[in-house]
Amino acid sequence: MSDAPTVTHDDVNAAFKSGRAFDEPDDRLLEYLRVLCSEIIRNDEVRLLANNRAITINTLLTRRFVKHENRTTTRLTWLVIVLAALNVVGIAVQVSMAGN
Question: CA-CA distance, 99 to 89, in Å (whole number)?
Answer without folding.
Answer: 15
